[in-house]
Amino acid sequence: MQFIDKAKIKISSGKGGNGVVAWRREKFVDKGGPAGGDGGKGGSVYLIADEGLSTLLDFTYRSIFKADNGENGFKKSMHGKSAKDLYIKVPAGTIVKDLKTGNIIADLTEHEQTVLVAKGGRGGRGNTHFCTPQNRAPQYCEPGEPGIERELQLELKLLADVGLLGFPNAGKSTFISRVSAAKPKIADYPFTTIVPNLGVVRKSTGDGYVIADIPGLIEGASEGVGLGHDFLRHVERCRFLLHIIDGTEENPIKNYQIINEELAKYSEKLSHLYQIIAINKIDAIEPERIKELKQEFDKLGIKPFFISAVTGENIESLKHELENKVNTIEKPVSEVNIEEDLAATDNNDGYWDVQKISKDTFMVTGGRIIRISQVTDPRSTEQIIRFQNIMISMGIMDELKRIGIQNGDTILVGKLELEYWDDEVYK
Fold first, then answer.
1. Residue 116, exposed/middle/buried by CB under 10 A (0-12, 13-18, 19+)?
2. Which of 13, 122, 392, 411 is the most core-located residue (most Cβ within 10 A)?
């Protein structure tokens, strides 16, 4: 399976169904009152984390998602059906960003963790809602509220217990194939592994933990050299690191130091993660050289494991230590800064603002008042009066007067264009 860790998607929640104008038509009921049903709610869009997924590959084939619209209302005060909500599965570990604002709106780290990213539009109300003592036969209804359209960026940071680090050809892929069921590509040349490999290691208790083989770490990786710059972020969520070093190299100490310098340059947090050091390929090293390496690492206060991923020598003792650390080291707490996602529910936003944009033109903005403007028919006098009264109740008219609106000036609210008169009679 191809590994993809970034994707862009477009989402749209469903439009609410329209309300209807209808009347009671029953035998022996003279002049029946209004009986227009409400429209159903449009489908909302959610992202849900699925621990069974490990790549964003599916979003390269499909990147546009739209929830269904609500059903229109019916006669006899029957409401239209609400549309089903749309749930989009993403891998656990996915960070969600709003492309318009740049805000991070979710960090989905737990299985079945769910976040609302676009609320469905409300259904429009039928004419039964607008019957008053002064107007017993309302001739208007509301259209359904529009859905919300957004562009999101998905970025995957793998959720693994152990991050497997080391230079190319250190034997990381061989190790992960030895201790798990993962079957990564193995060959004797640099950058055999070009995407992260995940392996599940069974514990003595029967459950398991996840090891992530991160490719491409070489000197300069933090600046984008090699492949490491693309994949270093995948170790940020690990409990600890397993650093595998090729014992046949001329200077294993130097290689150990280079990798750690790259970690520190990329992230101070990574540099402080607990590390287990394993010197690999002891099957190809003379006993005297192993003794020298022990002494060299001992000077640094490090007691590495000496293993052979090929023959399996000392692998079990290393697995025991890995299991022990998995059981005792907590996963790091996410430090992703989540912004309040008003764009997902901006149809409920009560905030508004008034600005003078020219000598005789004023613009009103805000989620709720814009929403109401979208369901107001400018051809209906009754609806316009109702809309003006809403602006009065919200304090918008007072603010317009405060900033100097004059008779005959234009008020822009969404697609509505109103002419202001201070002697207007509102009912």
1. middle
2. 13
